Fold this protein.
Amino acid sequence: MDNRNRNTAIMLIVVGVFFFLGKLIGFLTVSALILIWLGIYKVKTDGDSKGYVAVAIGAVLLLGNHLTIVIALVLISLGFFFIQSKKVHRDGSYVQNQTFIESIKWDREPWVLKSMSRWSIIGEVRMDLSLALQDETESIVMLQGIIGDIDIIVPEDYGISLEANVLVGRIGIGEEKDSGLLNKRLWRSANYETSEHKLKLIVAYAVADIEVKTH
């Protein structure tokens, strides 16, 4: 199949999916989710401030069209966060935080890695584990919320176990990247059991761009 026919086929599929989802949940809702995802992707790849505008417009459309549903989604997400937080941290102490908007940039200078659970409506997280000072053999980090832009850098000597769930968005691990709806990834590095430093990472968002880079 040449490029023209392939592009035509892809376009037909995309349009068909758009109309199908539009019939199920409404065209305005689908458009809002697409705007949010494209905005996150634009910020992630180009650092373009227009991406934030797209996210804001999508969020306003979604909020204005489905205020009750959005509030319900926030409450359900927060409820699951409290339940899962106690479940995954049952054997040790941890830091728990809930906020509307969160921006974590632990990729510029040394920082202390502790087991934690963090929830936000809109969250931006940058973690470079090569700069982390770990005060326990295995740390458990849980990141959850509604909209997220997550970027984790993992050095080769770190053992990492990842569980990622995204309703709409992209999950990237190294060179492998998956985009779409109801996206879920379970991944564990080959050296997890033998590594001196271990991280169990649990990530769940409604709309998100999640990327784990290994080096």
